[in-house]
Amino acid sequence: MNSTEFLQQVNQYHPLSKESITALLNICTEEKYHKNDLLLESGSMARYYYFIKSGLVGYYTIDEEGNSIYKIFFEENSFVASTAAIIKNEPSDFNIIALEDCSVIQYPVKTYRELLEKHHDLALFHIHYLEKNWVVKKEPLEVSLKFENAKQRYLLLLENQSLYKRLKQHHIASYLGITPTQLSRIKKEINR
Fold this sequence. Notes:
alpha+beta; Jelly Rolls; 2 domains; 4-stranded antiparallel β-sheet; 8 strands; 21% strand; elongated
């Protein structure tokens, strides 16, 4: 298993000792998921944390009409999990799906959480990761959803061209909370 990118990302949040690295890598496995495979199904317990080595992953729920509502997308070098479900020890409220063929490093929730108790530096990595990604990054997204219209949110998504080019139009429309027809109108309006 080539864990270079994984360890580089971990160390960006907090450097780990050799002992902690060894303990962490001992619980990791490399797995492949094909496009449209579910890494986690809504209603199931979250059994793994994932690190995306290659590919694209999306979180979605299903609304009352049976439509997929995308919440967020993750590209390479991202950590992915149903964090709220793990913390609450409850089934996940959403699905995690491979939107492209993916190669991931996965590690079991229970064993990883036991390592957090034993390895102070690993716990600090986890805290710093949560602070940056669940507080600092997530708060502006929530404000954006509440106060910005679909056109403004579309323009923000356009700023991340590498992600934008990888998404299907129905994923973008779902993420923005609009229909594909409304998305077409927004695109026409912008391209005038």
